[in-house]
Batch of 2 targets.
Target 1
Amino acid sequence: MSKLLDLQFLAGHAHYLLFIVLMMTGLFIVVDKTNLVKKIVGLNIFQVSVFMFYVSIGKVKGGTAPIFPMDDKYHVDTAAMAGQVYSNPLPHVLILTAIVVGIATTSLGLALIVRIRESFDTIDEEDILAIEQDMTREDNKKHGNAMGGLA
Amino acid sequence: MIDTVTNIILLSMLVITALAIVRMDRLFAVVMLSGVFSLLSALLFVTLDAVDVAFTEAAVGAGISTVLLLSTIALTKPVEKRARHTALVPFIVVCVTGAALVYGTLDMPAFGDPNAPALTHVGPEYLARTPVDIDVPNAVTAILGSYRGFDTLGEAAVVFTAGIGVLLLLSGLRRRREDEEEDQA
């Protein structure tokens, strides 16, 4: 932990710390808020922070985007590439895939919320829990004895 | 140096936006702020040299996802209820998780270090071979479409499955609603 007081070290790791702050804000929304739409927004914040963290690992100091110069015959100009530093393209590719998969899961979650609202007439987690407990109590009253005492 | 300052400013703006989302209870404002969050993160992706990721994030995160969230709050309620429980336990959980993650980053190489393990194996290999093997100027396109084409195929399968799931969940929404109205009438 004493490393955190070293300025040189802190300058190299400040990005990581801020990414973690963002991730934890997202996690807080997911855990604390009871509204389901807001939970999805929190999940998105968490997700995007992870993406930024992952892409930042591929960044090279003094590097540029991994797009090569072309010659006049539209081939990659390997001579002009010499001496140029490029950032690592692999994390970019993986995160491109992750963004698209993320929107797919988000839309599935939102569709589930619309169905929940249809069945329970609310999208608040605490209200849904209360309704479900009421339903269980009703069931126990009706069928509890047949099941040999309360279920 | 100027890069680091830009990044820190962008990250602070992201943190402020995220905290505003925590405080807000009108869902329309929350959705708009999440769009702002996506655009700011797209800016940060540009400074991190990930231009392809930046425009995907701007199109998907700020575009499609905002539209989906808006249509969801149009079908549900636009205002969030105040939580009845205390925020203390979630706060402690978040702090403990955050501390564990910070402890994990202490061993990591510094930001932008060219000798980091992540930058010394397959990454340079892809950069060296793309002009010879595939001859497209954008290395990200070469990896996405060719070297790792099966990943992209898997992605298509996931999106297809999610699309079927959404259709199954939402199909008959209007029919059920009309049935309900008939029952009440």
Note: Residues 2-63+86-120 of chain A form a domain with the Helix Hairpins fold (CATH 1.10.287.3510).
Target 2
Amino acid sequence: MLIRNLLNAALLSGAMITAAHAQTVGPAGETATPSAEIKLSDSDIASLKGKGYKAALLWHTSSDFINAVSAGAKDEFAKAGVDVVVTTDAGFDAARQRSDIETALAAKPNVILALPLDPTTSAEAFKQAVTDGTKLVFLSNLPAGYKQGTDYAAIVTDDLFQMGKQAADALAKSIGGKGKVGYIFHDASYYVTNQRDQAFKTTIEKDYPDIKIVAEQGISDPARAEELANAMLLQNPDLDGIYVTWAEPAEGVLSALRGAGNTKTKIVTLDLSEPAALDMVKGGNVVALVADKAYELGQTMAATGLKALLGQETPAFIVAPALTVTKADVSEGWKQSLNRDAPQSVLDAAK
Amino acid sequence: MSSAPSNAANPAMSMISRINIQQYVVYVGFLAIFLFFAVVLKDSGFLTVRNLSNIVLQTAPITIMAIGMVFVLSAGEIDLSIGSTVAVAALSAAVTMNAYGMIAGIAAGIGAGVAIGLVNGLLVAYVRLPSFLVTLATLGLFAGVARSLTNLRSIPVTDSTFTGFFGSGSLLGIPSLIWWTVIAIIAGHLIFRETKFGAHVLATGDNARAASVSGIPVPRIRLAVLVISGALAGLAGLLYAGRLQAAKYTLGETDLMTVIAAVIVGGTLLNGGKGSIIGALVGSLMMGMLNNGLILMGLSVSDQMIVRGLIILAAVAVSLREKLR
């Protein structure tokens, strides 16, 4: 029984991304609908306005990415005159997420946008919201056993497979398609990073026979990235490149390389960050940042929830595209991903 | 503030100032915060029965751990390891239950808590290491154990008797989490206030050497309070597992500071010799109500954190000022 439950949970979270197809597919094999296709029509907006509809944003953490998603969602809700009455941050704590949901329901939201922390613990947590008839739009993850249409409106996700793959492609390109690389992955049970990390590894192993992953290191506390990178470089001083699971630990890896006077080892990481981008535009170790269209993702989540509220059918599985940002297109990349200008320091250095 | 010098001249004022206001800070603060939210959020669902009962249900594990913390702090020690004890207990219970049934699962959960409490207690009481450092180390140690127990996987808890008894069910129309809270508070209060053991805990925290000279078995008291704290953190783990119908290595990670804040605001001294179980209950409910109300006010997450921090600071400041007199 235990084994079967474990398998079910593992299958569910693994099903969303199928490496064999090299593309992102839904939990039941649904093909992905591009986020750009979900738009509120003028008549949708007209029938939503003045109804006093309310929305809640129940996030798993706070980050630049979540800020951009929230901004997109709030702007889209505002178009339809819908108030965002509650915003929460569960700090990756499953019990707190359950409390947040219960608290938010007291404000009687019509639409909830949320990232369920993991399929197993969130199944019970979101049950009351389903019972209350709230329209649920999930980001990236799905509570175990939930049915589209009756229990939730849609899953919207960034193209996790593409993000990992593009990171692999960018790193491979920067080292001429051959050499030794280090792989620093997120050592925690967290769907988003797990999928992206795995896609990087799979792509290197399948598509680049001349590149070997010679060092692997899991990381759970981004603050320890520098010491982990130091240890990795001590054992493998001739690394051509390092993949880092996301930007915050990449900053630690960067300072380890700088401390060692290493200008040769290339870094590719995920998500936009000012220190990493600054290094990139100055021609440092960072060669590419892979990001997603977070703002568009937020708009799409809101639009999907509102369409469900109007009783319209919504696609089960919606994906916002990934993009690789390099020195050449850093300013454009920031706009596309976060819908705002790149930090001034980055723009100045890019001139 | 300007009225302070006239206190001595005014007999009525000086009498009021002699009453230990600190003792009542938590109750006054609780009431003030409740009234504030009741007025400001009257249209946002704060006063609904469902929301108010949610606050009590959500704080149940915090309250249970706070009872243990009152014993530990009153004895002049501290237990930082509860943050990871919760996860170890919940995961041990879930894994054991799925393999050997409910009773074994409950025993494994509480047993894990007791075992961690014993490790802490033996090191503190008999190896004579400071509890702050011992439990700081075991906090990290058992967080690692929780991660490796199931290799970061969440474990579903499907036994409906268990989930009913420990989190989701109710008896006589009252949710099981409220029963647990009430029973633990009454038992904790009686042991703390009415038994020789409770008096020994306070005497140990007040002045360990004097307590030892007067025949109190100080090492045994220190061991006992840490075992109680571990066992109650284990129970909190079972309540989380019952409520979420699953166990995960992150359970309880963020609870330590909430528990300490609830206990201190509730009138327990950080350096021993004085404590209040009822105060800890009200402190814990106050923390839960604060989280709930600030969310319903529609504040951004950053603003919620800032306001919560300021209110806790204010409550602690008032209680500590009184103690300095």
Note: Confidence is low (pLDDT under 50) at residues 1-21 of chain A.
